[in-house]
Each structure stands twice: as structure tokens, then as C-alpha cells.
Amino acid sequence: MAVGGLGSSLLLMSGVVVAVGLCRRLTRRRLRSHPRLFAFLVEMFSTFQICACTNELSLLGNVEPKPHTALTLTYGFTVLHGLTLAGSTCNPCGTLQPMWGGRASLRMGGLKIAAQFVAAVLARVFMHFIWSLEMAEPHFGALSQGCSSPMQTTEMQAFCIELLFSVVFQLAVLRSESVNPKYRVHLIALLITMLVYAGGNLTGAIFNPALAFSLHADCFYDKFLSYSLVYWIAPALGTILVAFIWDKSFLGYPETSNPEIWQYYIKNYFQHLQT
Questions:
Q1: Transmembrane segments in this chain: where (predicted)?
Q2: Where are the domains of the chain?
Q3: Which region, left, alpha or beta, applies to residue 186 given φ > 0 means left and ψ of -120 to 50 means alpha?
Q4: DSSP string, 90-155
Q5: Model pTM?
Q6: CATH number for region 2-246
Q7: What pLDDT is stored for residue 272 in this prediction?
Q8: At how many degrees (to 10) do helices 155-175 and 259-274 cross?
């Protein structure tokens, strides 16, 4: 892919970030007195940014040198999302966790999850419209791919990978709550990049039900049970497991929350997959 094509994609994603930032700022100014509508719109705009940018990033996986360029873009835009979307979860699993722990009401949590899936659909429609214009090289033929399945392993292994990644990610989010925000965003971005590197060629390493639907809606239409099991149920189950055992086990046994323990488990798991 030519450098010009990469530049066009970066310009498009930057435009999305700027537009979402303006929408979030306008929402804060005008709708503070309407908490439910405010929460819905802010979550919708934020999730739209992540889904739209990730849809575009999915077209840049073959940019040379591989996979360094794709991983660098993943890290960079994850940091950018973290800095510009503070206060939003943009992930149904991240919303489910405080709901399960009683820190968020069922009504507000359901409202945010609805906003996330609405944003996922809107982002997909928007990006398909942009791709149909074929104004940049990465967009040529993007709409003819159909179900470009990210699942390159067995259904059971894909389920376990997305479950494991969801557990690791949610644990990292909980453990980093006390970290300075300007460092925390880089730690989370580094973790996401590492997970994408470790499992991206097997499942896409998505662990976000709304993002998975935005990226691979055609696959959900063709194989709904299989994809809902891997990309919806597995991440949600991982989140529930973390929320259920965090207060009872991890706080009672601090050594189990040591990140080195989880790195050891992940390394051994992928060594097992390769044998």
C-alpha cells in the first residue's frame, strides 16, 4: 500500500476524532441538565469514534513493514482514544462490570449498552459509505469482502482466547485505577497492543461485543450462534468472572493479582496453542 493511502486513512481517522470531540463538547454544554440523554449521547459518540477508527485500521493490516505498522497504529490510536474519550467505557463489558458490582443502576447501564450498539451500527454504515466513494487506495474493494472472518482457529479455542483476553483486560483496568491517568492510558494501550499481537491472527483480539459487531456484522448474520458465543458471550463471561471474584479472591490473596502471574499464564497458553 502506498504512503498516500496510509496518509488518507490517517486523515480520515483524525477527522473522526475531531468531529467526535466537538460533538462531546457540545453535548456537555447543552445537555448537562438531562443526565440520561447526556449519558446516552456521550457514550454513543465515544463508541462511534472507536468503531469508526478501528474499521479503518482493519484495512491497514497489510501496510509494510508488517506487523510493525499495524501494531504502532493500534497503540497510537488506543492512546488517542484514551486521552480524548475520558469518562466513557465504549465497551458493553466495561459497562457490565459496575452494574454487576452494584456501582451502576440497571437502567443507566442498559442505556449505555444500547448507546454502544447504536454507535457500532452507525459507525459501520458511515464507514461503508466512505469506502463506497473509493477516495483512497485502502478503500478500493473494501465493500466486496463480505464476511472477512477474524476467527482462524476452532470455535472452542476462539472462545477461550476471547474469554482470557477479557479477563486480563478487565483485571488490568481494575488494577490501574490508582495509576496517574497520563501513565494509565499508555499502560492500557500497551496491554491492548500486546493482546492484539498475541491473538490477533487467531480471533482478532477484540474482546468488545459492540466493536466486534461493528467490524464483522456480516459474520454475525451468517454464523450468529458461533460469533455471538465467541465475541459476545465469552467477553461478557470474562467480565462477570472478574467482577464476581475480585472482591472475594483477588483482594484476599494479593499475590494472585500480580501481573507477572497472568503474563505467565498467557505465555504458557499460547505455547500450548502452537504445539
A1: 6-23, 113-131, 156-174, 186-207, 227-246
A2: 2-246
A3: alpha
A4: -SHHHHHHHHHTTSS-HHHHHHHHHHHHHHHHHHHHHHHHHHHHT-SGGGTTGGG--------S-H
A5: 0.87
A6: 1.20.1080.10
A7: 58
A8: 170
